[in-house]
Amino acid sequence: MVIVDLASWACILAGALLGIVGGVGMHRFPDFYTRLHAVGITDTLCAALFLLGLSLQAGLSLASLKLFLIFVLLFFTSPTASHALANAAQHGKLKPVLDGSQGEASR
Amino acid sequence: MIYAVAAFAILVTMGLALARALAGPTIYDRILAVNMFGTKTVLLIAVYSFMSGRSDILDIALIYALISFIGVVAVLKLVEQGNFHTSGGDDDQERPEKW
Q1: How many structural domains does chain B have?
Q2: pLDDT, tens digit, 9 for 90 and up, residues A34-58
Q3: Per CB distance under 8 Å, which residues of B are interface residues toward A?
């Protein structure tokens, strides 16, 4: 049981670290498309590590089945939402901040 | 104890996302931040379910994941087309220049 606990704590701590890194990237990256990259990290791997760590705590039960369902849902919806956002931004003629150009991003 | 650490990390991330949603220069930044906020809310509800020992709260997290995705896609459609009733594809819709 100690090994399972340690594995689940490692997963949860790694997920927490990835979440904070993604939040900082969300705050500091210069334009929309780079922020999309930061959100892509936190939405997939951070959520997957959290749910894996929680389901290691739950063992083989109904709770871990629900956690697996949440994982499947996030696994399909979060890349779809990211793609729809990028598509909408491109369709709305949002220009990325390129090297040397000063964007409208916060400075 | 580990749940408290996880909840704190998720809350910090949600705060950063909320700051970007308030400060974001374009509407797409705001939608992106709200999308991330929704995903983190799902994780926070799951962690809270384990913290309080009631596994039925996980159903709320499941439903929230569904509603969050539908909401983001609906807001994107509204921003792109200006309404909900056109089927998309036509590029001659009136769109405000600045949001």
Answers
A1: 1
A2: 888 888 878 888 899 999 999 998 8
A3: 2, 5-6, 9-10, 12-17, 19-20, 23, 25-26, 28-29, 31-33, 35-36, 39-40, 42-43, 46-47, 49-50, 55, 58-59, 61-62, 65-66, 69, 72-73, 76, 79-80, 95
Domain locations in chain A?
Answer: 2-91
Nearest CA in chain A to B20: A27
Report the distance separating Cα B29 and Cα A28, nearest Å: 12
Residue B98 included in any domain: no
Is A32 in Cβ contact with B73 (below 8 Å)?
no
Residues of chain A with pLDDT under 70: 100-107
3-class secondary structure, B76: helix
pLDDT of residue A107: 39
Confirm or reject contact between A13 and chain B (CB < 8 A). yes
Q: Does residue B76 belong to any structural domain of this protein?
A: yes
Structural domain boundaries enclosing B28: 2-81
- Convert the pLDDT of each residue in B38-51 to its tens digit: 999 999 999 999 99
Q: What is the pTM of this model?
A: 0.84
Nearest CA in chain B to A39: B36
CB distance B88 to A87 below 8 Å: no
CA B23 to chain A, closest CA, distance in angstroms equals: 8
Is the ipTM reported for this complex over the cut 0.90?
Answer: no
Q: How far apart are CA A1 and CA A11, in angstroms?
A: 15
Choose the closest CB to B13 out of A19, A57, A104. Answer: A19
